[in-house]
Write a structure and sequence with these properties.
heterodimer; A: 296 residues; alpha+beta; Uridine Diphospho-n-acetylenolpyruvylglucosamine Reductase, domain 3; Enolase-like, domain 1; 2 domains; 5-stranded antiparallel beta sheet; 4-stranded antiparallel beta sheet; 14 strands; 34% helix; B: 157 residues; Ubiquitin-like (UB roll); DNA polymerase, domain 1; 6 helices; 16% strand; elongated
C-alpha cells in the first residue's frame, strides 16, 4: 500500500544538522529511526508530517556508552542489538528480558528503544523495564539539551513531553547499585509477537526494596508506587504478597479493547504480580526461573 | 513529486532508480524492480510475508521507505537461491512444508537468518525466529520439522 501523504525526506549527517532541520519544521517533521511505528502511521494517515528526518546517519546515536552506574543507550540502538549485547543481559537483565518480548525478530532488527518510548503507546514493552531502572531520557532541541526522568516523559496514550522539534538522543538506564533480581512478565493472546495485554516489570533489591512498573493497564506505563511503598523494607512472604495484590485495583486503570476486557486485565495483573515478585526475589537469591523464560 | 535517486545492491546486482520519499520498499521491489517473492500481506509489519534481508538482517520491507534502502544490500528469496535451492528449501519441498505458499518467501528468509545466527538452533530459537511469520495453512508443524532437520545437521545436501 502506498503512502498517500507526500512529505520531504532528509538524512542529515550530523546531530546539529538534524536538530536544526527539526527546528525549521517547527514540530511538523517526524524523526525516523526504525520506522516500525511511524510507517504504519503514515500509511494509515495518522501522521501527516511535512518532512521525515532520517536520523540513521548520526553515528553518535548508534552506541551504548557504559559508565560505572549507567548505560546511555543511543537513539539508534535496536531491540535486536540490546538482546545480542552481553553487558545488557548481565547488567540490565529486566531490559534484556523485555526486549525479547517486543514484536518479532524482523521488527526488532529495526525497531529502536528510543522509538518505542516516543511512540508512547500504553502497551510498550520497554517502558516497565526502563521505569524500574529509573531511566532518564536525553533530549536535544531548538533550546539545547535537557534530561527528563522517563516517568515524566509519558503524558498520555501516544503523548509525550517532547517539545516541538525536539529529538530523543538516548535513554540513560541506571544500573542498580545493590545486588538485584528482576523480571518482565508479559501477557499476550499467544506466545509470539502480540502486543501486551498486561506487562509487568519487577526489580527486587538486596536491601528489601522493590520496584514495580506496568504497561497496557492504564493510559501510560508507570511505577506502582503504592505497592512499592507497602513492600519496601520487608521480606517477601505470601501474606505480604496478598496485601500487595489487594492494592492492584488502586494502581491500575485498564480498559477493554480488542485484546482483552478490563476485568481480565485486572485479574491477570494480580496473577502476574504474584509470579513476577516471586521470580524477582528468587532470582535475587540466585535461583528462580531461567532468564528469558515466560512467567505466564 | 520530489524524486530522489537511490542506488542499492539487489541480490548482488547494483540497481539505480528514482523513488519518491513516500515510496515503500516492498512496493518498489515488486512494482519497479520486478522482484515478486516479497508478498503484500498485512502491510503493517505483523505477518512477515514481505520479509527481505537488508544489510544482513531480516526486515519488514512494508515498513521501510525505499529511500532508506539507498546504499543498502537487499537480498530477497531470489537472491539466496541463485545457485539452486538451499538445503533448507529442499527440505521444505521434501516435507511439503507449504500449501498455498504465500508465506513461504518470508518464512524461508527468517529461517535462514535463524540458522545463520544459530547453526544448531534449538527448537525455541527456531520458534522465536519464525514467530513473526504467519502461515494460515500448515499449522507450522511441517515448517518447524524442516528447519529442525537442517539445524540438526540431518538434512541431505
Amino acid at each position: 500500500m502506498p503512502i498517500a501523504h507526500e512529505f520531504d525526506y532528509h538524512k542529515p549527517k550530523t546531530l546539529p544538522e538534524a536538530v536544526k532541520l527539526l527546528a525549521e519544521y517547527r514540530g511538523k517533521a517526524k524523526p525516523l529511526a526504525g520506522g516500525t511505528d511511524l510507517i504504519v502511521w503514515l500509511k494509515g494517515g495518522l501522521e501527516k508530517p511535512e518532512a521525515v528526518v532520517d536520523i540513521k546517519a548520526l553515528r553518535e546515536l548508534g552506541r551504548i556508552v557504559w559508565k560505572k552506574d549507567e548505560a546511555l543507550i543511543g537513539a539508534l540502538i535496536t531491540f535486536s542489538e540490546l538482546i545480542d549485547n552481553a553487558d545488557v543481559r548481565k547488567k540490565l537483565p529486566v531490559l534484556w528480558e523485555a526486549s525479547r518480548t517486543v514484536a518479532s525478530v524482523g521488527v526488532r532488527n529495526r525497531a529502536t528503544l528510543a522509538g518505542n518510548i516516543c511512540s508512547a503507546v500504553p502497551s510498550l514493552d520497554s517502558a516497565p523495564a526502563l521505569l524500574v531502572y529509573d531511566a532518564v531520557v536525553h533530549l536535544q532541541g531548538p533550546r539545547g539539551k535537557r534530561q527528563m526522568p522517563l516517568k515524566d516523559f509519558f503524558m498520555g496514550p501516544k503523548k509525550t513531553a517532547l517539545a516541538p522539534g525536539e529529538l530523543v538522543t538516548g535513554v540513560a538506564v541506571r544500573i542498580p547499585k545493590k545486588k538485584s533480581g528482576g523480571c518482565y512478565a508479559k501477557l499476550g493472546r499467544y506466545a509470539g509477537e502480540d502486543l501486551a495485554q498486561v506487562g509487568l516489570a519487577v526489580l527486587a533489591l538486596a536491601d528489601n526494596t522493590y520496584r514495580v512498573a506496568h504497561c497496557a493497564v492504564g493510559p501510560v506505563a508507570r511505577r506502582a508506587e503504592k505497592i512499592e511503598g507497602l513492600l519496601n523494607g520487608k521480606r517477601l512472604s505470601d501474606i505480604l504478597l496478598e496485601e500487595a495484590v489487594r492494592l492492584v485495583d488502586k494502581e491500575i486503570s485498564p480498559i477493554s479493547d480488542i485484546r482483552s476486557s478490563k476485568e481480565y486485565r485486572l485479574h491477570m495483573t494480580k496473577v502476574m504480580l504474584r509470579r513476577a515478585l516471586w521470580a524477582a526475589v528468587n532470582r535475587l537469591a540466585g535461583s528462580g526461573p531461567v532468564a528469558g523464560s515466560s512467567l505466564i | 513529486m520530489k524524486n530522489i535517486s537511490i542506488q542499492l545492491k539487489l541480490n548482488g546486482v547494483r540497481r539505480t532508480l528514482e523513488v519518491e520519499p513516500s515510496d515503500v520498499l516492498l512496493d518498489v521491489l515488486r512494482d519497479k524492480l520486478g522482484v515478486k517473492s516479497p508478498k503484500v500481506g498485512c502491510d503493517r509489519g505483523d505477518c512477515g510475508s514481505c520479509t527481505v534481508f537488508m544489510n544482513g538482517k531480516t526486515v519488514r520491507s512494508c515498513l521501510v521507505l525505499a529511500v532508506e534502502a539507498d546504499g543498502a544490500d537487499v537480498v530477497t528469496l531470489e537472491g539466496i537461491s541463485k545457485n539452486g535451492p538451499t538445503r533448507l528449501q529442499k527440505e521444505f519441498v521434501k516435507r511439503n512444508s507449504f500449501q498455498c505458499g504465500f508465506c513461504a518467501p518470508g518464512v524461508i528468509l527468517s529461517a535462514e537468518e535463524a540458522l545463520k545466527k544459530h547453526p544448531r538452533a534449538s527448537d525455541e530459537e527456531i520458534k522465536e525466529h519464525i514467530a513473526g511469520n504467519l502461515c494460515r495453512c500448515t499449522g507450522y508443524k511441517p515448517i518447524l520439522d524442516a528447519i529442525k532437520t537442517v539445524a540438526s545437521g540431518k538434512a541431505s545436501k
